[in-house]
Recover the amino acids of this structure.
């Protein structure tokens, strides 16, 4: 029989990778709490319309990457490819308008049918933060500060560069779009076939092209800043000034447009040069009109998402997660008392394991050492009789016997 495998682009997270994953989630959650984001959870499945209406008909996610299917009632369903549109759907379906502004944190698996490669999978995970119902540049500032704190806490801040741009308001965007169409139309014959198509559907996306011939033409394309309205210019200026005042380093990348259509004003990415072509570790921006496309009421919002797998690639060290005490009964007669001691240790939130299964004490000690604990606790008839605990520090080989009461008291320190 052919051996069963995980589906292409989907991974079992085991061992050190699983430890890194949990470590990242713990830190993401802690940061969310510090910045007063409420943790919410959303379904894996949504109606296809949620993403079709919001991400843009010409976005790669909608045109080729959704895991969509018809369910038993004939509805078009998809595994969610991202959180933002889903969360806006939730704002509408739960009539959250009265509760706004609201900060929501969530994390979990997302699905995109892309060609798998290093740091790009078909099932991947994001940490996702949305600041919903706030139209001030200060919300953009706070969110970016939070992203910086997150990467600082994870120890990867120095590997990342913050690239930022403004797509202006709707008016600026239309003016820019016209300028781009005029410019790229003059060079249409030299553009890649994908970019030629985008000239009709979404000319802004041409700026994102990785095609070498396209890149040469893009180099001299008009810049967004030439089309900003006064208010869009002011908004971006105020945000950059706040970042300057708070010593946040950034690089204004005038060609940064993002692959999803719902953004206006601020867009940003945290990029790295350590992951080849998959250089965006986190990305986000303002999406004031997304909710209108889903049939909701105007709700100005900003958010960002960080890819957990990409963060995992940037963490150097293994995550420390060692067992503190391995408890070894000298003979089977002490098993029951060892479990009582273990219960005391664990109830003090200290990581401990019991070593069983080998009849002979020295074999049990060998097995205990394989767990690589800080201490081995030896519990035999003498210890039981004297109400003592004997423990050996494996790094120093120092062995100490102390009263059980002392030992338990020390767990609480
Ligand atoms: P996105 O740029 O599509 O934006 O994805 C955000 C991040 O998710 C990327 O920077 C990357 O780290 C990770 N990512 C995306 N696709 C993959 C993949 N196939 N494999 C591994 N990691 C991946 C969004 O999804 C927006 N919803 C972000 C946002 C939140 N904007 C506003 N709020």
């Amino acid at each position: 029989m052919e051996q069963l495998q995980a589906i292409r682009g989907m991974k079992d997270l085991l061992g050190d990778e699983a430890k890194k994953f949990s470590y990242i989630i713990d830190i993401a959650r802690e940061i969310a709490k510090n910045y007063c984001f409420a943790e919410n959870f959303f379904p894996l499945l949504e109606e296809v319309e949620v993403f079709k209406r919001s991400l843009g008909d010409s976005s790669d996610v909608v045109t080729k990457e959704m895991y969509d299917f018809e369910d038993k009632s004939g509805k078009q369903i998809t595994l969610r490819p991202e959180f933002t549109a889903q969360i806006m759907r939730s704002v509408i379906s739960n009539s959250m308008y009265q509760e706004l502004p609201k900060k929501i944190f969530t994390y979990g698996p997302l699905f995109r049918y892309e060609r798998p490669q290093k740091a790009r999978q078909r099932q991947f995970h994001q940490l996702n933060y949305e600041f919903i119902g706030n139209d001030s540049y200060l919300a953009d500032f706070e969110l970016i500060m939070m992203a910086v704190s997150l990467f600082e806490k994870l120890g990867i801040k120095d590997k990342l560069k913050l690239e930022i741009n403004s797509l202006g308001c709707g008016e600026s965007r239309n003016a820019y779009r016209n300028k781009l169409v005029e410019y790229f139309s003059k060079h249409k014959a030299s553009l890649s076939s994908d970019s030629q198509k985008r000239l009709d559907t979404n000319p802004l996306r041409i700026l994102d092209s990785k095609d070498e011939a396209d890149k040469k033409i893009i180099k001299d394309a008009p810049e967004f800043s030439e089309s900003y309205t006064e208010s869009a210019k002011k908004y971006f200026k105020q945000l950059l000034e706040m970042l300057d005042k708070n010593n946040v380093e950034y690089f204004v990348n005038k060609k940064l447009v993002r692959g999803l259509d719902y953004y206006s004003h601020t867009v940003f990415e945290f990029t790295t040069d350590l992951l080849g072509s998959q250089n965006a570790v986190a990305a986000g921006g303002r999406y004031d009109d997304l909710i209108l496309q889903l049939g909701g009421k105007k709700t100005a919002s900003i958010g960002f998402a960080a890819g957990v797998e990409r963060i995992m690639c940037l963490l150097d060290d293994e995550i420390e997660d060692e067992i503190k005490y391995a408890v070894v009964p000298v003979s089977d007669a002490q098993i029951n008392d060892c479990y009582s001691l273990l219960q005391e240790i664990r109830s003090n939130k200290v990581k401990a394991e019991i070593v069983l299964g080998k009849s002979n004490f020295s074999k049990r000690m060998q097995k205990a050492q394989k767990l690589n604990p800080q201490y081995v606790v030896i519990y035999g008839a003498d210890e039981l009789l004297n109400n003592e605990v004997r423990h050996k520090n494996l790094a120093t080989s120092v062995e100490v016997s102390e009263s059980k009461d002392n030992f338990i008291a020390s767990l609480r320190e």
